[in-house]
Design brief:
By secondary structure, the chain is α+β, with helices and mostly antiparallel strands. Helix content is about 45%, strand content about 20%. It contains 20 helices and 18 strands. Helix 4 crosses helix 12, helix 6 packs antiparallel against helix 12 and helix 9 packs antiparallel against helix 10. The radius of gyration is 30 Å and the shape is globular.
């Protein structure tokens, strides 16, 4: 009982820590500029710190905490006078974690810097930047950088809000989430037209009050949690068949059922062991929730970042070569040794560390499988942290059930196949799968960068080569380092080889030019139809020629008197490709898109930079500003502030005078649902 309470207390404290860590802004800052003498000013940044949190001083020993950096600049030119002063509730103590004397502040801290403008008689914009890290007793948040601006008019007076020079950069203030209609409040702009042309709030775009309710029952969002749980469960079962895990099943189950005089207690301990395995895998997802709490759009940034997708491509190649047997991926042996030693504690704690040891020592086989599972979730989904929890939970559940059921029915151990060369075959097959999946990340990097080097046909050819390699391996024509010199070609290998041949035949049809899309099974994985050797840019998509600027589409719609279908899409959006290839292409959908609407396909992950005069800054609150730098930034913001939505695909029908006709719809949907959405909106527009 004592051990049980200890485990519960530890988990409780761990959960409290995680909840605390999800606070997005434990420090609130206010920036002021005060005149302090003739032609001299003092920049003052005041930070109010949440209870139990602190930030570090500017002066810390090397290799300890992250020191705060505070600096003042001005494009008009200033001269700094002296050093930055720190004022606040100061703590100066020895840190056992860092092995050094550190200084930090709690409750409140003030940073002051005196300066002198280059020309004190003229207006100037003073910019303050602070880089800091917030910590409490148990966790530290990621370092954060904030920027503040204040204008001075000269002669030792600070500009009031009414006197701000309106020729300066446009700044927009974002209100709290959920306040639709007041999400974006433009300030310091010359005319409302500027806001519109920058792709910001359009007053008539009110998705909550469409012109008609016909056919506007929003489809229920797809619940991917259970699908991901199932995929995680399948991944866990596959991992059990690898040589790192499979031989440990009978040994571990026998330890509980045969090595214990009390058979009932042995079975109970085995179930607890399985539960702890599940718990450990679920706990692995907690860091993703923390990251999401700190930066809610970080996973979208990851999934569309060119360099990160190239990194994932390299990682998957690394995983593949590991499965082929050229090297093993292992965690440091010291970690496994410490966990194994902790098993001696006995009771629940000992069982917990037995489960942890299993997870650690099996990493060389489970790591690539988990990496593939997690990489797939991050690359193609919204609500990533929850899906990762379900994925890891499904993975752990497979292990927990196997160990639990075999403990309940130990006689079933006799039915398990014996360890042998077949386990290495499983690893090598997984290696070929990893190799194929790696190309998905390379393709996404290619699409987002708009280099379009990895055409659809080239992608298919590479998959055909990989599939042929797998078939040749399964029939014993090639070997890898850990294969037997004379491998036995079992019936199972032959059956898999036949499936491989069928898959190659399936892929080949994708190389034949056709007006209709093929390879539906791989929709969202293959590059889109218009990234093809057989495709000409002037052909558009499926013969459609969408505009990629909403405002251009509106002008055309006015001339042709047609509604505009806003298609919020992305180069890296799998469900967008599925909609285009297998819904838009249908005989009763395509004519509607060709004849009855003007399509505005705006890409929220377009990394091309906007012209400098169109780059704006958004006030995110608490003095933090976000620069809208790329085309994707612009359309992503446009979608969020007008429709309170950031998922793709997202479809909206609007009139040429920019009124929302019926409720927008999101995600991949059946053809009939999309047709109903289109028809009701178009019919209303024609008959109004």
């Amino acid at each position: 009982m004592k051990n049980f309470k200890l485990v519960l207390s530890t988990l409780f404290l761990f959960i409290i820590t995680i909840l605390n860590a999800q606070i997005k802004n434990p420090v609130k800052f206010r920036f002021d500029v005060d005149p302090v003498g003739k032609e001299e000013y003092e920049a003052v940044l005041t930070g109010t710190i949440e209870d139990k949190w602190h930030i570090y001083s500017q002066d810390l020993p090397p290799d300890s905490g992250i020191p705060t950096e505070f600096k003042i600049t001005s494009k008009e030119g200033i001269q700094l006078l002296g050093k930055v002063q720190e004022i606040g509730k100061k703590h100066d103590e020895f840190s056992e974690a860092f092995g050094a004397q550190i200084v930090y502040y709690s409750n409140k801290v003030v940073f002051k810097q005196k300066f002198k403008p280059k020309d004190a008689t003229k207006p100037a914009t003073i910019t303050a930047e602070i880089m800091y890290q917030t910590c409490n007793d148990r966790v530290c948040l990621a370092p954060n950088t904030l920027e503040f601006e204040k204008q001075i008019e000269g002669s030792n007076t600070v500009a009031s809000d009414e006197k701000v020079d309106k020729t300066k950069d446009t700044v927009y203030e974002v209100a709290p989430a959920g306040q639709v209609g007041t999400v974006l409040k433009p300030t310091n702009i010359a005319t409302p037209t500027v806001a519109k042309q920058d792709g910001l709030k359009i007053n008539s775009l009110d998705f909550k009050n469409p012109l008609t309710n016909c056919g506007t029952a929003q489809q229920k969002p797809a619940n991917d949690n259970w699908l991901v749980l199932g995929l995680g469960f399948l991944g866990g079962l596959i991992a059990l068949l690898t040589p790192c895990v499979f031989p440990m099943i009978p040994l571990t189950v026998s330890f509980f059922t045969k090595g214990n005089k009390d058979k009932a207690k042995g079975k109970r301990d085995a179930f607890i062991y399985g539960f702890f395995i599940l718990l450990i895998f679920v706990l692995l997802s907690i860091p993703f929730h923390i990251i999401d709490g700190i930066s809610g759009n970080i996973f979208n940034q990851i999934s569309t970042n060119i360099w990160l997708n190239l990194f994932f491509f390299a990682i998957f190649l690394f995983f593949a070569l590991s499965f082929f047997g050229y090297y093993e991926i292992t965690l440091p042996s010291s970690i496994a040794n410490k966990s194994s030693k902790a098993e001696e504690a006995g009771g629940l704690i000992g069982i917990f560390f037995m489960a942890l040891t299993l997870v650690i020592v099996s990493f060389s086989c489970t790591g690539p499988i988990l990496g593939s599972l997690l990489g797939g979730v991050v690359a193609g989904a919204t609500n990533v942290p929850t899906l990762l929890t379900f994925a890891l939970g499904g993975f752990g559940l497979a292990w927990a059930l196997v160990f639990g059921l075999l403990a309940l029915f130990p006689q079933a151990l006799q039915s398990l196949p014996k360890s042998g060369g077949w386990m290495n075959t499983v690893k090598v097959v997984l290696g070929f799968i990893e190799l194929a999946l790696a190309l998905k990340f390379l393709s996404k990097a290619d699409l987002v960068s708009k280099t379009f080097l990895l055409k659809r046909e080239l992608f298919i050819v590479l998959w055909i080569i990989i599939a042929i390699g797998l078939v040749v391996y399964l029939f014993g024509k090639i070997r890898f380092p850990h294969d037997d010199k004379k491998p036995k070609i079992s019936l199972g290998r032959r059956i898999l080889g036949v499936f491989g041949i069928v898959f190659v035949a399936y892929l080949i049809q994708g190389l034949i030019p056709s007006e209709k899309p093929k390879l539906q099974m791989l929709s969202g994985i293959l590059p889109p139809l218009n990234v093809s050797y057989f495709h000409k840019e002037e052909d558009g998509i499926l013969g459609l020629k969408p505009y990629h600027n909403y405002f251009e589409a509106i002008e055309v719609a006015k001339k042709e008197n047609k509604p505009v279908l806003i298609d919020f899409t992305g180069y890296g959006c799998e469900n967008c490709r599925k909609m285009e290839e297998f819904v838009w292409s249908q005989d009763d959908i395509l004519p509607i898109l060709q004849n009855d609407v003007i399509i505005a396909s705006v890409y929220v992950d377009d990394k091309e930079e906007l012209p400098e005069n169109e780059q704006i800054k958004i006030d995110m609150g608490d003095g933090q500003k976000k620069k809208i730098k790329t085309i994707g930034d612009k359309w992503s913001l446009f979608q969020q502030v007008n429709f309170n939505n950031n998922s793709q695909p997202h479809y909206v029908l609007v009139t040429p005078d920019q009124n929302v006709i019926n409720s927008p719809v999101s995600g991949y949907m059946p053809k009939e649902d999309f047709k109903k959405f289109l028809k009701c909106g178009i019919d209303y527009f024609k008959n109004k």
